[in-house]
Amino acid sequence: MASHHILLLILTSVLLLETSASPSPCAFPAIFNFGDSNSDTGGLSAAFGPAPPPHGETFFGAPVGRYCDGRLIIDFIAQGLGLPFLSAYLDSVATNFSHGANFATAGSTILRQNTTLFQTGYSPFSLDVQSWQFAQFKSRSQIAYKKGKYQRYTFSSAELSPCDDSVYGQGGRFFWIHNTGPFGCLPYILDRFPIRAPEVDHVGCGAPFNDVAQLFNAKLKETVAQLRKDLPQAVFTYVDVYAVKYSLISQAKKHNFEHPLVACCGHGGKYNYNIHWGCGSKVIVNGTEVLVGKACQDPLKRICWDGVHYTEAANEWVYDQIVEGAFSDPPIPLRMACQRQNQ
């Protein structure tokens, strides 16, 4: 039976292959992911140098290109669908693209930035560049398949207008879209930007920053609604990750977490975050290299890993809340994301 692709856009995009047209759970033999450090499984590390220890220590036992102590939400998505972890498209060592590829890189933005990684920390692999990489991956893998070298990916070949040069134009038809989280609760925001007392909510988060996140999410949801009209052959699922993450942070104790606004891995200050001495940072003391960006004693009880990203435990908790569709519009589970609903 002809295969189709599902694009799981997690503010990041994940493209999955669907092999059944029945109303039964979808069969996804591959995932293609687009995004930033929240779903980067090694892209930036391959391009600009590895994430140092103690990244990766909880699950992998060593750094594996993720800005986390272990698995990311995208890893749990892959596992939940019975697939292996995604290899980064930019990684040329020990990669396996037989079940998809990951185009996400840490520091990536939606719009291209007129700057460099070394000046501002923004990745050069913005969302449009990632979509170009996907197009190249598709064309080159099809050529390789004809030569008998690689897994074949069959993309939807429905009629496309000449202007469709996006992932949809390359055959993506099913989209799982995560909105952005409450970044006003992240240590790097709370430490770096002065927030007046009236601007701090009851949890301790920076309300103005969360207001911006919610405004973005409202516009994103409007855009998704419009895309459903503009691209009737596609299926879009919008997932309210903001609500899930804010619930976790605001009710940390209830969910068996502690210190929700303090980074597990970092160095000093109220939030254990310092922009100059991040997780894994080292200094030279009397000629000896000393680790100052250390991990906390029990990452499994913490929500924020390094001041910017979530811990494996938090990522797993978020995944568990969203996988069955409780925070989705329409309210369908991930395994049914290939099914067209009345949207």
Automatic annotation (TrEMBL):
CDD domains: SGNH_plant_lipase_like. Transmembrane segments: none annotated. It comes from the Eukaryota. Keywords: Glycoprotein, Hydrolase, Signal. InterPro entries: GDSL, SGNH_hydro_sf, SGNH_plant_lipase-like. The keyword Signal applies. GO terms for molecular function: hydrolase activity, acting on ester bonds. Residues 1-21 form the signal peptide. The keyword Nucleus does not apply. Belongs to the 'GDSL' lipolytic enzyme family. This is GDSL-like Lipase/Acylhydrolase. It comes from Musa troglodytarum.
